[in-house]
Specification:
The complex is a heterotrimer of chains A (307), B (500) and C (311). By secondary structure, chain A is an all-alpha fold. Chain A has 16 helices and no strands. In chain B, helix 11 packs across helix 19 and helix 19 packs antiparallel against helix 20 (468-481). In chain B, a hairpin with a 2-residue loop joins strand 5 and strand 6. In chain B, 44% of the residues lie in helices and 14% in strands. The chains are: A mainly alpha (307), B alpha+beta (500), C mainly alpha (311). At the A-C interface, helix 1, helix 2, helix 5, helix 6 and helix 7 of A face helix 1, helix 2, helix 3, helix 4 and helix 5 of C.
């Protein structure tokens, strides 16, 4: 399938001048995008004294690995939440991608009788919502999403946005004749989807999987809502956000708390520690990124696979 | 189909079996605390449950809210009628604000329960705290939460770096003779000595404003960022203020203008760190700088015994707290930490019995606060509490729990600390409007609008970052446009009615 | 719109329904059931006896549009203007930049470089606004920020960035583009990937230059994706990115004239007043406006290109 696809693109591409321009523009923007992350790494290695004296800086007065030592001292809590983040992200991504594909595919099929109904069912929820408290009540009391992993996965399983994006991928990459041909062959609907459609739409799946994985990896608000007693299931992102929110709260209410606020502030993590945790959060997902990207860019070089 | 039936049957059996198992056990009551730093409560809860089984007739479970997540968790639990939370921390400044939530029916009226089971509680805490908790709630006038016995008075103090003060050639007595308006010469000398990057005046701008102008927070007004103000009689806090018992728009007073003019002068001269004027960086900057002792004069809302606390001792300088008035008891401070029973609770009686015990029984209070003796702390030869390393995994917020006067003295505080603590707060006098709570229901929209306006100007003005000459008139005009007069009139009408 | 004859039900429809079923059940339970809560916008929500959520919902007093009266505030005009204006400008900028970058990336001969750029561009998406706000602070902090420090070393008066509104529309715009362009360009790039290469071959045979190919093959190929993302962002035109407007300016009061948006206003007000009715009302208002915008945009798109429209 892929034997001769490289030729047209290489035969007919932009000249060296345009290529150089592209490299400059893309390179500059890409640099702009990662500089803040480099900055975060620098802060995480900055000594507290330096932060106190000159604030955050690309060139701190002195360096320190104190923050990382402290992170490792978090011990069980850290590794446990790290494990939870991986678990939630993996299970959540697999399930949500499956649900998304299964929901988007019928919407792509113009010959599906209830296409408009299901399309509207999903789309409407992008605009209208019941609000935080009613959703909380339904999830907690009706569905029992409380103090368990399910509470951190189920509320994020479906995204109308991703369904629409996925549907668009179907529309732009899967020619309708392909479906018609396979239906005439008498293939079952599920077989058509899995054996014929999915291989074609790989870049789309990779993209959706990436979006879902990110959503699960970055999620912390669900933990705030649904995890009250069982802190064994919280993800790393929540561990970090809780520290952040503790600091914010003390800042806002210091006048009310008086001496207590100052005493409590002693327990707060230093800035460099927060940044070290950010590094811990970003690195795994950033490492996972090329995995998803392979499908997107591989598709580019090979050209789309047409039957 | 058969398989499904079997599954349903076995599920049903499982459910009945587990409910039988429950029936034999004591009911579980759950309490949600604020501001805790607890990672392992198993040892403590085991001891607590053994201790309260007969006395309360229930098993305790605790939700350890932290500073950052308590507000969301508590309001969600209350607003959603969560039966899983029986008791919850409340007060005049948290998101589940006592007066509002009691008025809207979320808290159980306790008067009958107190009459029946609360004799110990009534004996253990001062009458004035019971009064402060007595408000007009959903079920009429009554007590809707158990009021904690802690630092019940407000006292704002200058936080003075005595080491540096002496270096500049002044004594603490020299300082005490000065007022806010005389600090300029101190600051100038400090700046000269320590260099341009040194900011001598390390303030919490909103607290500073209260210290200088003598304004007092009006309870029930926090939604507008406290722009309403009563005024303190600086000589006798129990007498009525200079303007009488009337609520004013504090930003329109002459004292305020005088204050911000001076503050702007200090700011422009480089005496105030500009980060203090920005909402999200203000307090971080203050606490971080405080730790290093790199300041000359700061502000501190004070609690008795603060000078012995580790965060003051660690600063590496000699610190003195110089009060600018006597401590005074106002509604805000006397509703500072309470625990209410949720109307969604299925076990209000057991919950109350527990609160009664927690606030009157030293054994339970000490256990829940300091942990298990021999594990989280030990008693030294003088009978004082010394914490072990285990304490790191169990640090609840003491003031948020209840009657702190039941606690034994710690080695850091010294023997007799709790006695002096009680004496100090017993001596504090009440302001005339104590107990007055502004009911903002009728002017909620004005409050929301005024709050935004105040948030735009107040902090930056108080910190001196804005020029009052140009911005104060804009500010006052914006307040008027947002309905200041309506808001003020409503508050004053209620105050007059309250004072009768 | 063309008329479609009613079709008979077939087994194919049954199988397709079973595919959509997991998603549909999820939607009904987790999205539709809580929608009953929308009535809170029109009620004075309070605890009733017995205190359970549904009982409170039913028995609380109807108050008509009282919860919407927060709109009477003098800041309303400012916050609505800010929300709409920033969103409108950013929708266009993000679209143009993201498509441009995606096309550039797809045309790079050096595959390794393309991969590297793409990975780097996704990084902003990993960092929360809280973290990004530290980065901005490092430049603008009045005491130790890089820009004020440079100004001081040149004996200029340092700019009080968190007190003056002048620069914030620009700072917010840059922050937003930084965060969102890379992300969107990945979506467009994936869409470009899906374009049938034979179309390029055919164009090349016809003698089209590469620029012409981009114009006549690439852009039409990703038009459905462009249109869909556009319609969806128009639907969110009344919603602002809370973290951007709250954390990046450090919630500084004097900046409100250019940083206050509906979401931050509601947040600040809710944090102060805890009025559930008001926040429900604000959410409903955003939904209704979003709905109207989407229907209008979709209608326009449908007139031009029925295939690309959302519904």
């Amino acid at each position: 399938m892929s034997k001769s696809r490289q030729t047209p693109a290489t035969l007919n591409s932009f000249g060296p001048g345009a290529q150089a321009l592209f490299h400059i523009v893309l390179g500059l923007f890409a640099l702009l995008c990662i500089v803040p992350f480099i900055f975060v790494i620098i802060i995480s290695f900055t000594s507290e004294d330096s932060i106190r004296q000159i604030g955050y800086s690309f060139m701190p007065l002195s360096w320190s690995t104190q923050a990382y030592k402290y992170v490792f001292q978090l011990g069980d809590a850290l590794w446990r939440s790290y494990f939870n983040s991986f678990l939630i992200t993996t299970v959540g991504t697999v399930l949500s991608v499956a649900i998304c594909i299964l929901y988007a595919y019928p919407l792509y099929r113009k010959d599906f009788k209830y296409r408009n109904f299901f399309n509207f069912l999903s789309f409407f929820t992008m605009i209208f919502g019941g609000g935080l408290v009613p959703t909380f009540v339904v999830c907690k009391t009706l569905l029992g999403l409380s103090d368990n992993y399910a509470a951190l996965i189920v509320p994020l399983l479906f995204s109308p946005f991703n369904v629409i994006v996925m549907r668009t991928f179907f529309q732009t990459t899967v020619p309708r004749e392909l479906i018609e041909a396979s239906t005439i062959d008498g293939a079952g609907e599920y077989r058509t989807l899995i054996q014929i459609v999915l291989p074609v739409v790989k870049p789309g799946i990779a993209t959706i999987a990436l979006l879902n994985a990110l959503a699960f990896w970055n999620e912390w608000f669900l933990s705030l809502l649904y995890i009250t007693k069982n802190m064994d299931v919280i993800p790393l992102q929540y561990l970090l956000m809780r520290m952040q929110r503790n600091a914010d709260f003390l800042a806002k209410n210091s006048a009310m708390l008086g001496a207590d606020a100052a005493a409590a502030a002693r327990n707060l993590p230093s800035q460099s520690l927060k940044m070290a945790l950010v590094v811990f959060i970003v690195v795994p997902i950033a490492c996972a990124y090329p995995f998803f990207q392979r499908y997107v860019v591989a598709g580019l070089t090979v050209g789309s696979v047409k039957g | 189909m058969k398989k499904l039936l079997a599954l349903v049957l076995s599920l049903a059996m499982l459910l009945t079996a587990s409910s039988f198992a429950l029936a034999e056990e004591l009911p579980t009551i759950t309490i949600m605390f604020h501001g805790s730093n607890v990672t392992d409560d198993s040892a403590v809860l085991e001891a607590v449950n053994a201790y309260i089984a007969d006395k309360v007739g229930a098993k305790l479970e605790v939700v350890w809210g932290t500073w950052g997540d308590f507000d969301d968790k508590a309001t969600n639990a209350l607003l959603s009628g969560d039966t899983g939370i029986d008791m919850v921390f409340t007060c005049s400044w948290s998101a589940d604000e006592y007066n509002t939530y009691a008025k809207n029916g979320y808290f159980v009226k306790l008067d009958d329960l107190i009459a029946e089971y609360g004799a110990d509680l009534v004996a253990a805490i001062p009458e004035s705290l019971m009064q402060a908790a007595t408000i007009e709630g959903a079920e009429g006038m009554g007590i809707y939460a158990v009021n904690g016995f802690k630092d019940t008075a407000t006292q704002n103090t200058w936080d003075v770096n005595v080491t540096l003060l002496n270096e500049l050639g002044y004594s603490l007595d020299d300082f005490k003779a000065m007022s806010f308006y005389d600090f300029g010469e101190l600051f100038a000398k400090a700046k000269e000595l320590k260099g341009d990057a040194f900011y001598p005046f390390l303030v919490e701008p909103m607290v500073l404003e209260r210290m200088v102008t003598g304004s007092i927070i009006v309870a029930g007004d926090s939604g507008s960022t406290n722009l309403l103000s009563l005024y303190l009689n600086q000589d006798d806090v129990s007498a009525e203020g200079p303007e009488g018992n009337v609520i004013l728009n504090k930003f329109a007073t002459e004292e305020y203008r005088k204050f911000v003019d001076k503050m702007h002068e200090y700011y422009e001269a480089g005496y105030v760190d500009p980060s203090l004027a920005v909402a999200e960086t203000s307090n971080d900057t203050r606490t971080n700088t405080q730790k290093t002792g790199e300041y000359l004069i700061g502000t501190q809302s004070y609690a008795f015994g603060y000078e012995y606390s580790a965060d003051v001792l660690d600063r590496g300088i000699e610190v003195a707290f110089v009060p600018c008035t006597d401590p005074y008891v106002d509604t805000t401070a006397s509703q500072g930490a309470m625990v209410a029973i949720s109307t969604a609770s299925e076990h209000p009686v057991e919950s109350f019995k527990f609160l009664n015990l927690l606030n009157s029984d030293p054994v339970l209070m000490t256990l829940l606060n300091y942990g298990v003796e021999g594990v989280h702390y030990t008693l030294n030869a003088d009978g004082l509490v010394e914490f072990t390393d285990e304490r790191a995994s169990y640090q609840p917020w003491t003031n948020g729990m209840g009657n702190v006067t039941l606690l034994p003295d710690t080695a850091a505080e010294g023997a007799g600390f709790r006695e002096s603590f009680k004496e100090y707060y017993a001596s504090a006098k009440a302001i005339p409007a104590l107990g007055y709570v502004f009911d903002n229901a009728e002017v909620a929209n004005e409050m929301a609008a005024l709050g935004t306006v105040a948030a735009q100007y107040a902090l930056a003005l108080d910190a001196g970052a804005l020029d009052p000459e140009t911005t104060l008139p804009d500010f006052l005009a914006a307040l008027d446009a947002a309905g200041m007069q309506t808001y003020l009139d409503a508050a004053n009408a209620q105050l007059t009615a309250y004072l009768g | 719109m063309h008329y479609k004859p009613r079709r008979r039900w077939s087994w194919k429809d049954f199988w397709l329904v079973t595919m959509a079923l997991p998603g549909a059940i999820w939607l009904l339970l987790i999205r539709y059931l809580p929608m009953l809560g929308v009535v809170i916008s029109f009620k004075d929500y309070k605890a009733q006896k017995p205190n359970t959520f549904w009982n409170n919902l039913i028995k609380s007093k109807w108050v008509g549009f009282k919860n919407f009266e927060f709109l009477k505030s003098p800041s309303t005009a400012t916050m609505i203007r800010n929300t709409l204006l920033y969103n409108a400008v950013w929708i266009v900028l993000v679209l143009v930049l993201a498509v441009t970058l995606a096309v550039m990336m797809s045309e790079l001969k050096n595959r390794f470089a393309a991969k590297a750029y793409q990975t780097m561009m996704f990084f902003p998406y990993f960092l929360s606004w809280v973290v990004a706000s530290y980065f901005v602070l490092a430049f603008l902090d009045p005491t130790s920020g890089m820009i004020p420090s440079i100004q001081k070393s040149l004996s200029l008066k340092p700019t009080q960035f968190y007190m003056t509104t002048t620069w914030w529309p620009l700072i917010l715009t840059i922050s937003n583009l930084w965060k969102n362009v890379g992300y969107s360009s990945v979506l467009y790039l994936a869409a470009i990937t899906g374009i049938d290469t034979t179309l390029y071959e055919a164009a090349a045979v016809d003698g089209a230059t590469k620029w012409q190919q981009v114009w006549h093959v690439t852009l039409p190929g990703i038009r459905p994706m462009i249109v869909i993302l556009l319609i969806m962002s128009v639907g969110k035109i009344f919603n602002a990115d809370f973290g951007l407007f709250y954390n990046v300016p450090q919630n500084s009061g004097p900046l409100y004239p250019v940083t206050q948006v509906i979401d931050t206003y509601v947040y600040n007000t809710y944090a102060n007043t805890h009025n559930l009715g008001m926040s429900a009302a604000a959410g409903l208002l955003q939904s209704v406006v979003g709905c109207v915008c989407i229907v209008i945009t979709n209608g326009i798109v449908r007139k031009i290109d029925a295939d690309s429209s959302l519904f």
